[in-house]
Structure formats: structure tokens, C-alpha cells
Amino acid sequence: MKRLAGTAALIVWMFVWxxxxxxSAAGPPAPAGPPNGAHFEDVTxxxxxxxxHNNGAFGKKYLPETLGPGAAFIDYDNDGWQDIFLVNxxxxxGHPGPATTPALYHNxxxxxxxxxxxxxxxxxxxxxxxxxxxxxNNDGNDDLFVTAYGQNHLFRNNGxxxxxxxxxQAGLAGPxxxxxxxxxxxxxxxxxxxxxxxxxxxxxPQSDLYCTMDGKSKSYCTPESYKGASVQLxxxxxxxxxxxxxxxxxxxxxTSKSLGIAIADVNQDGWPDIVISNDTQPNKLYVNxxxxxxxxxxxPAGIAYSEDGVARAGMGVDAADYDGSGYPSIxxxxxxxxxxxxxxxxxxxxxxxxxxxxxIGRTSLLTLGFGCFFFDYDLDGWRDIFVAxxxxxxxxxxxxxxxHYAEPPHLYRNEGAGAYRDVxxxxxxxxxxxxxxxxxxxxxxxxxxxPDILMTTSGGPAVLFHNVGGRNHALRVKLVGTRSNRDGIGxxxxxxxxxxxxxxxxxxxxxxxxASELVxxxxxxxxxxxxxxxxxxxxxxxxxxxxxxxxxxxxxxEGAGLLRRESLRQRERPAAK
Length: 577
Description:
The protein is mainly β. It is globular.
């Protein structure tokens, strides 16, 4: 069956290239010149981030120990500065270890952060995996959903710097699962954020299996050793509670072994679709039928398998329009010896993996990617790619000499016309340091317009990279929904500047176990203004601005237009009247 799928994929690939040439081949003009000096510096210690992940490992090599943790940017106190949330594990029952909890770090607005975990009511021990940020009750305060082995948790933001665990009263309590990534999405466009949760496999300490790579010692088992588990879709009822809509929406599939979730409008019909990256099972593409249900179309779309018909080990996933075509393409980080997938959206329901013929494929073949995302690190108006790398088993180098346990990340600069160049080596020694990385997210920690990177490691420290040295201009857009959900998740913002048009959807989820900031950043290159900014809200309403100066953050309210604007870097410009 897999070989037949590979043949079909090859035929589709040949057909697409013969009769549907990529719109990016000519495309908009490529970015001019080198990446203007933008690079990343490790500011973890200087920022006061002291987090160390506890995976609970004690020699038994339990499967969940290889997976976490995730990370999130969240402006939990609405002061306009991105705070940091880090998910943590815990000791296994019966095996004493350090008492650990998640960590919430408040942004002090001076390059440093303060640990406010216990003050915020988040000092709760759980074997955490990932996090998703979204205002599920439309009260203007972003809430936290934390996935875990065991019981997932919904923490409601009380608006006073504290959170309350409302899992049970929200109807989200249930049987133990090994949940991974999660994302908020208003899939039925009723103005309330729904929740989709990825589940990995059916595992427990009691059902743990003995696996070995060398025939002598125990190794971490692959997911093929365990039965799969379906993703879950929780529909927001608008009264603070949720109902399980998984089967009713057509998402129930117990063969899945899901690790990543990305939300994208792949066919540009105005409704959010769902991309799921699966580990050793086909990836999934759930296309929104606009009636509360989805149809799974990954195989005919060409993203379920590799070109030779093999279900790869997909970890993180993201989606964005990286070539100016107007349609989002799909990025999936895979296992070592499989390379990253870069599925280009051909705008006709089909995707073609461009990685094998590119520098992305060649440089990622031996690495194992987890967190991944599109972002514009040098603010030239083109979506670059970041991938956090790290293997699963500390003993892998004894079995495969060219594969390493700790690995540097990948940073690919978008050169325009669909081409990427690996610029990791230009980012400095601290950025290139090998780590056993997992989650990754981006956010602007100092409001200078340039996205910074937060990355976690398995059983090790979190790392905060500050983006410095760039000279390009930026425009940041914050949304406030009224008829739509309060965060504006699912809204599409289009910016016309410098002769180019960029479009971004505000989304929850993507990467791996992690949540990037809920603010959209548009790199403007050398342009001093955006000629136009247009917002298409999930409700169907539109708002637009003209002649918006660069180097500021503008807040747009649904139905009212410009709510306020603040200068980047100084943030001293008064609110617009």
C-alpha cells in the first residue's frame, strides 16, 4: 500500500511540474543584498531565565521522557510586553526526584524577567508537554491550556496576574492521555475559540515495553510499538464549557500518532483548516466543510507520505505563504535520515515537497527536527525558517556514527523565488551550540520589532535568543475582535509595502508543543511605511488603514479600525485619536 502511494505521489509530482508550474518561479522580486547583520545572541542568563526541564528519567526509559517540553509567549498581564511560560515534567510516581512545576516569567521591560509562577497560581506539579495560548472566554485576558501525560489543564486568566485551574468545570477532565501539541481555533466561526488537542499513543508505565537497539540494553521504544490515539476537538459552547466534537466533526482517527498541529486556510475559502503531523503514520489535512465538519484530504493533497510512499516521523509543523503566492505552504520537521518537508501549495489542492531538491533537504537529512516555524528574522518581508533539532536517544551515536544526540538548530534565510539558504553558521557560536532541543516559539521580548526565539531542551535549560544587528523596518499588528473572538485568531492581515503584498493569518499552535506571540510582525525592508493594511476578520467583517508608518505597533479593533499605535523601540507615540 505504501509503495502504491509513493507511485501515485510521483505521478502527481510530475504532473504538477509539467502542467502547473510554480507561481514562485518568477514571483515577486527577491530580497536585496545580504541579511543586513541580523543575528541571535544567547541572553538566557542575563534575562534571568533559570528554568531546567525535568523529564523524570530514572533509567527505565519511559517513552514520554523523549518528548517535552514546550514553551509559550503570552502577555498575561496585558502590559504590551511578551512574558514567557515554560512547561515542565515531574518525577515518576514511586521514584523521588526534584519537585518541579511549570514556570511563568514576567517581562520587566528592561531585558530581564522575574519568576512569578507561584504568585500567579501556576506552581502545580504535572507531567507537562505543551502549551496553547488563547482567550477562550473573550474577557480580554489570554488563558493557558497545558497538555500533559495524564490530565491536561485549562488555566483561566483572572485578569489580576493570577490563573485558576478550571479544567473540571470547563468539561475538559477526562481519562489519562499522552497529549502533545494543542491549538485554539474558531473552526465554526461563532466567535468563540475551540480547542484541538493532539494525542500521541496509548502508553502507561504499566504497558511500557522493552525495546533495544543493540540487543544488550533498553532503548526508548518507537511509536510503532504502541497503538495510536485520535486527536480531540473540543467545541466552545460560549458559557465557559466545552463539548467533545471529535466524532461529530469527522476528526476521530485512533490510528493517528500526532505530535504537531498547524492551522491554515489552505484553499483560501475563509475557513480554518487543520494540519496534523504524525509520527510513523500518515500526516493529516482536515479541510473545513464550513458546516462544523471536516474532510481528510492529506493523501490526494500530497502531504500524507514522502515521495516514495513512506509515512515519515513528523514532529513539528507550521504553515505560511513563504513565496508571495497568496496561499500557505506547509513545513514539517521529521526524524533523522528523512529530512525536513517543505510542501509548496500549488493553489489547486495539491502540494509538492520542494525540500529534496533544495538546500533545506540536503542540510537537514541527518538531523532530527522538533520545533519549527516560519518567521521573518531579518525583516526583509520574506518568511524564513527556524528548526530546533535534537535526537531521542543518548546512545544513538553508537548505532549511527553520523547522527548525533545533541544538534545545532537550523536557520534558513528566504532568498526569494522559493529558494532558501542555510545561514546557521552566520548566527554565532552560542546559536550553533549543539543541544537536545524540543519546543520553539518566537516573540518580540523588547518591542524593537525583531522576533526573538525561545527554545527548550529535553532534561536541560530553556534558551532565549535575542535578535540583534538588523537594520530593516517592521510593522507589528495587534488585533482586538468584537464579533470575532477577542484575540482575532483566524483573522488574515494583508500589508502592501515596497511594491509587495504580504498576508499573514493570526494563529494559535504550530511549531511543536509551543505557542508563539499573538501579534503579527511584517518586515518592511527599507520601506518607511505600509501603503495599506487590511484585516479580514473571521466574522467576515473587514477593516483597513492607509499610509501606516513603519517601526510601530498598531492595534486594530474589529469594526472600529485603528485603536492605538505605539512606536517600536521607544514606544512613546501617544494613542491615535
